[in-house]
Design brief:
The chain starts with a strand and ends with a helix. The strands form three sheets. The chain has a six-stranded parallel sheet with strand order 1-11-8-7-5-6. Strands 3-2-4 form a three-stranded parallel sheet, sandwiched between helices. The protein has a two-stranded antiparallel sheet with strand order 9-10. It has two domains: 84 residues, Rossmann fold (3-Layer(aba) Sandwich), CATH 3.40.50; 122 residues, NAD(P)-binding Rossmann-like Domain (Rossmann fold), CATH 3.40.50. The chain is built from ten helices and eleven strands. It is of the alpha/beta class. It binds NADP nicotinamide-adenine-dinucleotide phosphate (NAP).
Length: 284
């Protein structure tokens, strides 16, 4: 029997709990949590993501401010805005939507965000804390995957987990969080040889590779948990990094695309913003 993980329902449940807590903590503090989202340029996918984040913020009872900047924005202009947002006491979280136009120094911008307001968890200070096992703001997508494991009672300790992809926003933090959960972790990437046979030993496979339907039945051992982080647009349809119908019967658990990991990313952004608000206003 294969269980289909319902990330949409779980994401909504988490957001509902966050909204309740926001109402309670906002009353005590005398203001709402504030999230600033910065969008540079007109990338259509980024616009969709930013609109979804804004809607989720309002539903959760946050103050949401979206800064829409032109495609020709310079690094200095963006750094000035981040500086203002860092200093603004009503802002608890700052998110710069990626990708940025190529004239902008992405690293310089991301590293300029106050680590306490870094709700994406991309600042090297937070990355360091994650890797030494401290509590901090964790990157939303892999953190959402960890919430899935928790909610569905998927045990990590002693399990073989394979992460396909080593990006700073998904693959590496995913591996780090799995390690914190006492899994034995292997990371595969574009230079890895024979990924299928490595995955064949995995109790848990997390695919974050960005290639449609990369993971096929020959990657998956019977009873494995398969988490598909991929979001690829093929002929106008969203397709994951896993060939869903091919692997389905072999899995104990599987995430669909859409409706799996995607909605969890937004839920964890809300979670991180509330966490930052509580830390900054000393509400524990
Ligand atoms: P990325 O930065 O492009 O990284 C892709 C990773 O896959 C890289 O580490 C790359 O290896 C590896 N890779 C590429 N080709 C490979 C191959 N043939 N064999 C093995 N590994 C290969 O992508 P990302 O930002 O991590 O995103 C990954 C996927 O997740 C994308 O589909 C993206 O849209 C999706 N995503 C979803 C969410 C969500 O909310 N669900 C959030 C973020 C991303 P090298 O390092 O060697 O180049």
């Amino acid at each position: 029997m294969t269980t289909i993980i319902d990330g949409k329902a779980l994401g909504l449940k988490i957001r509902g709990k966050i909204a309740e807590e926001v109402a309670e903590v906002s009353r005590k503090v005398g203001r709402k949590p504030g999230l600033a989202v910065v969008l540079v340029g007109e990338d259509p996918a980024s616009q969709v993501y930013v609109n979804m984040k804004e809607k989720a913020c309002l539903e959760a009872g946050f103050n949401s401010s979206v800064y829409r900047l032109s495609q020709s924005t310079t690094t200095d202009e963006l750094l000035n805005l981040i500086d203002e947002l860092n200093k603004n006491d009503g802002i608890d979280g700052i998110l710069v939507q990626l990708p940025l136009p190529e004239q902008i120094d992405e690293k310089e911008v991301l590293y300029s965000i106050d680590p306490k307001k870094d709700v994406d968890g991309f600042h090297p200070f937070n990355v360091g804390l994650l890797n030494i096992g401290e509590d901090t703001l964790f990157p939303c997508t892999p953190y959402g995957v960890m919430k899935i494991f928790e909610e569905y009672g998927i045990e990590l300790s002693g399990k073989n987990a394979v992460v396909i992809g080593r990006s700073n926003i998904v693959g590496k933090p995913m591996a780090s969080l799995l390690l914190r959960g006492n899994a034995t972790v292997t990371i595969c990437h574009s230079r890895t040889k024979d990924i299928a046979s490595i995955c064949k030993n995995a109790d848990i496979i997390v695919a974050a590779v960005g290639i449609p339907q990369f993971v096929t039945a020959d990657f998956v051992k019977d009873g494995a948990v398969v988490i598909d982080v991929g979001i690829n647009r093929v002929d106008g349809k969203l397709v994951g990094d896993v060939n869903y119908s091919d692997v389905f019967d072999k899995c104990s658990y599987i995430t669909p695309v859409p409706g799996g990991v995607g909605p969890m990313t937004i839920a964890m952004l809300m979670f991180n913003t509330l966490k930052s608000f509580k830390t900054r206003t000393h509400q524990y």
